[in-house]
Write a structure and sequence with these properties.
Blueprint lengths: L8 H22 L4 H7 L11 H8 L7 H27 L5 H19 L2
Helix pairs in contact: 1-4, 4-5
Amino acid sequence: MILFADYNTPYLFAISFVLLIGLLEILALICGHMLSGALDAHLDHYDSITTGHISQALHYLNIGRLPALVVLCLLAGFFGLIGILLQHACIMVWQSPLSNLFVVPVSLLFTIIAVHYTGK
C-alpha cells in the first residue's frame, strides 16, 4: 500500500489538519494565548440549544464536556486513521482500493462512534 496514493487523499488531509492545529496551538502557547480557549469563547451560547436533533448530535459528540478544538481534532484524526485502515484492509483482501464514495461515509460513521466513546 502506498500511503500517498490518490485514494488516501481525504484521509491524509484530515491527518495534516490535526498536525496543523497542533502546530498552531504550540505557536499560540508560545505567544501566551490559547487557541482552544479562543474557540470555546465563541461557543458560550451552546447551552441555549436545548431541544432538537442538533442538540442531540452535539451532546453525542461530547461538545459540552470537551473543548471544541479537542473534539475537532478527534474527529479529523479518527477519520484519517479509520479511512486509511479501511483502504488498507480492502487492498489486502481484494488487491484494489474501494471507491471513496463508499469508504468516506463508512469512515464518518465509525469516526462518530469512536469520538463518542473516546470523549467520555
